[in-house]
Structures are given as C-alpha cells and as structure tokens.
Amino acid sequence: MDETLLQNIQNEILVVGAMFKNTDLYIEHGRFIKSKYDFSDEVTKFFYDNFELMYKTFTQTIDENKLNTYMSQDKDRLKDYRRYGGFKTIKTWMSLSNPDDFKNYIEIIKKYSLVREYDKKGYAVQKIMSHPKFNIMKANDIYKIIRSGADKISTEILSDEETIAMNNSNVDFVKKWLLKPQMGLEIPFKLLNEMFRGLRLGKMFALGFLSNEGKTRLAILLASFIAFVKGEKVYLIANETDEDDIRACLLTTVINNEFFKQIHGVDIGKVEREIVLGIYKDDLGTVIERKSNSDGEYIESEDDFLTRVEKESSAYRKVLKVAEWIDSQEGNTIFFERLKDYSDNNLEFKIRKNALSKGVKYFIYDTLKGYKDENWAILKQTTTMLADLMGELKCCLWVDIQLTDDSVYTDIFSFSSNNIANAKQLKHVLDHLILGKRLIKEEYHKYKVVPNENMCWGEIREMDLDLNKTYYAIKVDKNRSGSKDKIPVLEVDLDKNIWLEMGHLIKASK
Questions:
Q1: What is the separation of C-alpha 12 from the centre of its chain, rounded to a whole number of angstroms?
Q2: Of 10, 154, 204, 493, which one is least surrounded by beta carbons within 10 A?
Q3: What is the pLDDT of residue 118?
Q4: Residue 125 lies in domain
Q5: pLDDT attached to residue 240
Q6: Quick one: which H or E segment has residue 434?
Q7: How far apart are CA 352 and CA 346, in angstroms?
Q8: Are 390 and 265 in contact (CB under 8 A)?
Q9: The predicted structure's pLDDT at residue 39
Q10: Residues 364, 249 share a domain
Q11: Which helix (H) or strand (E) holds 397?
Q12: Separation of alpha carbons 182 and 205, rounded Å
C-alpha cells in the first residue's frame, strides 16, 4: 500500500508543535508516545526525540536560545537541526498547534501508528482506510476491527506495558544479583534497613504515627539523609507544614545528627526553639540581646547587632557555617512544595514533573489523606494511584499516615492496620507499612531493649528503658521484602530531631 496514505504528517507536526508550545504536556502524555511507531516522518521524529531528551536533561522551558544551545552540543545533531530548518521550523509548528486539542492529536497519531504496523504485518488495512467513517474512528476502533491475532501490536503501541516470559533470563538474573545485590538506598536505621533492603525503587512505604508525634520531623530527617549523605535528589510534598517550619527543622536536623556532623565537620548541639527565636549566648553564658533604651527602642542597628553576635558567640558562628554548608549542596537537592491542591490529578502531575524534569527518584509525602473527603475509599484510590505511579516511574515514595487517637492505648506488639485512621485497607496496596508510637514512661517496665550490637560472650544482653529518655517503637505490619518479626526501638529527641535506633523491643519477663 502507498506509504503516503499511511501517514498523517500534518498531525505529527501538531503533536510536536504543541509539545514545544506547552512542555507540561509531556508530563501527562509523554509516556504514551512511542517515537519509533508514532512518527513516520524523519523530521517530526527528529524534533520529538530531541524535545524529549532536552526536557529530561537540559531544560523544561524552551525558547530559541535554549534550543540552539542544546542542538549545538552535538555536531551531528546540529547538522540535522540546520538541515531541517532550525528554530524557524519549530516556531511555525508551534503557531499551527493548539495545546488544548492535544488529546485529539494523540488519538489521530495512534490511529495511524496502528494502521502502519498492521500493514507491515500483512493485515488488509486498505478497507479500513477507505471506510467512510475512517476520519472519525479512534485508535481502539481500528484495534477492534483487526482484533484477532493482533494483541501484541496493540499492546506495544497503545500502552506502556509489555508481557514478560518468566521462564527466560533467570540465569542472567542470578548472576546479576550476585554482582549487584538487590539493595535499595540505605536509611539511617540498621534494623529497618535490613528488613526492607533499603528504599527500593518502584516501592511505596507508609509510616503511621499519632497526630503531633513527629511524622514530619522524621520525614525531614529521612529527606536530609537521602540528599546530603547519599547524594540523591528528594521531592518533599506537604499539605500541612509550611516552608518556615520545614527550614527550621531541616537546619536543626543537620546541626544535631552525627552522620551530618561527620560531613560538615561542625560539632554543635542546638535545639530548634533557640534557633528560630534567635537565642545565642556569648562564651560566658550570657544571652546576647540587641541594645535598646529604657523605652525598649532599639539603639543598635541590625547590621551592628548581627556583626556583634557573630563576633561574641561561637554557637552562632557554627550555626551559620552549617547553614552555609546546606546552601552549598547544589546537586544534593531537597525540593519542597506545599500543595493546597493535593487531588490525585495534581499529585500525579507534580510527581511526574519532578521525576521527568529534575531526575528525582525519591519522594516523601506528608501527610497522605483524601482531598476534600476523608472517605476511606477515596484515600485507597489515592494510595493505589501513587503505588502504581512508583512502579511505572521506577521511583520510591515514603508517605506519612495518621493513626487513630485510641492507638495510644494499644500495646505496640498488638499494632496492626486497624490502627490506621480512616482507611485500614491501605495495607492491601502498600509495599511496606510501618506503625509507630511513643512509649508511655509508666509502661517502660513492661519492655526491654536488645541492642543492635548485642553479643556479649555468646549471651544476649538486655537493657532497661531509661526514664530520662523518650522512646518510640516501630511495628512493621507489612513487608514485601521479607521479615517483620522485630520491633525496632528508637531513642528520640524531638527538640533536636535526633532519632537513634537502639535495637529491638522485647517484653520484659514477668
């Protein structure tokens, strides 16, 4: 059949033009476009392929200077770019396209992709294309007409999924795991890290605490560790906590935790309250205050006061040094956004955009809840969407969830998904479910701690809980990576945001 009849180059131009005109279209639709099938013309394929590569690796905002700069980075690419008309071609295509019609463009491009592939496989597409209603047919209509024996072709073009034969390549996988064990990104908790095999891409974790028990603080500790210790980008999404609170907790976290001190080299202990209130003492232990007269009016300028505090307080100098160190971590970035609209569509859009445009692999969402509706079915729907998204993008998501208020009365050994507020059925969707609580000091006598390094002459050494300290116990209620029989116990200082895994909890002998 005449190849020109199997093409709709005008529509391919509209697809590419719309993408360049509104780059956000790639976030929503890019995963459905299969370049090797969907572009029959070498010019449209060239511009689309380079748009995709440029979006992922160079810039997400496109103008003539950026496009020319990108194209000039490769000699052969620049040669083709000039041969195909350069930015003048793209400018013309952009003027022809309407991003609001993009769904129609996609429908047409998929229809012609199917027709071309069926024609290559020997199917009689002439009758379909000569049908009086061909112009209003959709891609799925074409598939239904030639359904018998055509499943593989339609799967490759219409979806992002592929059937895998599980009785192939197993020897290769055994060798691969020997050379590179299937471990995810390390987290700063020995037992949890071993139980989950780290933060693995494609997986979704959920941590449940009672309200106001430190979910956000632990999330920031985790984000800081991923970014500043492991060198990975993190996208932190919040729907309750604002930027100031996040910054205060971030600085407190990096100041006080040992694994950050080992990198930035500043040894200091400082509680968050003193940082945000600007309380610093001189070397004699006196709080430094801005000079004022008897009426309480400042007589010392802001610049003079800042200079004096820096001169007189070693603690202030150290805090400044840590803040400067955080600012210097350009590649190891924590991206933060507080979402007022945390609907499924907007959540998916934000995650896709950060994964595709910034290369983020690790996401933290504080707190998972239904948008404008706390109905359990709505929340499960959101959780399912997020879990599927992680599998598709090969990213990892850690979400915070809230436990019921009466969980405070439940013994940690009896914790289960029944303690989740609004939606215990989330457990069915998640890869890993972690439930935690602050232990009540009046009940410390009920437990013992088996330290992580617990071997002493072949005997297990048990420790009592110290009444002068605060402990959180963690119950792993679901773990698709294996074991969940131990209950890690953490020594916690929320004022400094320090969470130290001490070992695992056992019940004390009666």
A1: 33
A2: 10
A3: 77
A4: 3-158
A5: 87
A6: strand 432-438
A7: 10
A8: no
A9: 94
A10: yes
A11: strand 396-402
A12: 17
Two tokens, residue 155: 């799967």
What is the mean pLDDT for each group of 10 consecutive residues in the chain (510 residues)? 77 95 92 91 95 91 93 94 95 95 92 83 72 75 62 57 73 75 86 92 92 92 96 94 95 96 93 95 91 91 95 95 93 91 92 90 92 80 93 94 80 77 76 92 93 59 92 92 88 96 89
pLDDT of residue 455: 43
Q: Which residues are CB-contacts of 231 (< 8 A; sequence separation ≥ 6)?
A: 331, 332
The residue type at 469: K
Strand 488-493 to strand 498-507: parallel, antiparallel, or no bridges (unpaired)? antiparallel
Residues 68 and 205 in one domain: no
- Radius of gyration from C-alpha coordinates of the chain: 29
Share in percent of the chain as helix, strand, coil (round to 5): 50, 15, 35
Structure tokens belonging to residue 61: 């905002």
- pLDDT value for 456: 46
* Domain end (from 109, 140, 158): 158
Verify that 258 and 396 share a domain, yes or no.
Answer: yes
- Look at the chain and report how many structural domains it folds into: 2
For 42, other C-beta atoms within 10 Å of its C-beta total: 10
Residues 231 and 325 in one domain: yes
Q: Which residues contact 292 (CB under 8 A, 6 or more apart)?
A: 298, 299, 300
Are residues 305 and 410 located together in one domain of the fold?
Answer: yes
For 369-391, give one letter per residue: b (16+ CB within 10 A) or e: bbbeeeebebbbebbbbbbebbe
Separation between Cα atoms, residue 320 and residue 270, nearest integer Å: 12
User: Is residue 468 in a domain?
Assistant: yes
Q: Tokens 């119950």 sit at which residue?
A: 475
Residue 457 pLDDT: 44
Q: Are residues 154 and 247 in the same domain?
A: no
d(CA 310, CA 321): 11
CA quadruple 46, 51, 54, 60: dihedral, nearest 10: 170
The CATH number of whichever domain residue 280 belongs to comes to: 3.40.50.300
94 and 239: one domain? no
Instruction: Record the tokens describing residue 371, joined without a space.
Output: 């948008």
The pLDDT assigned to 177 comes to 65
**Cβ partners under 8 Å of residue 335, min gap 6:** 233, 234, 235, 236, 354, 358, 360
Are 495 and 385 part of one and the same domain?
A: yes
Lookup result for tokens 């560790």: 225
**Tokens for 189?**
């908790």
Residue with structure tokens 């209509």? 141
Q: Which of 218, 188, 193, 128 is nearest to 494 (CA)?
A: 218
**Which one-letter amino acid corresponds to residue 359?**
G
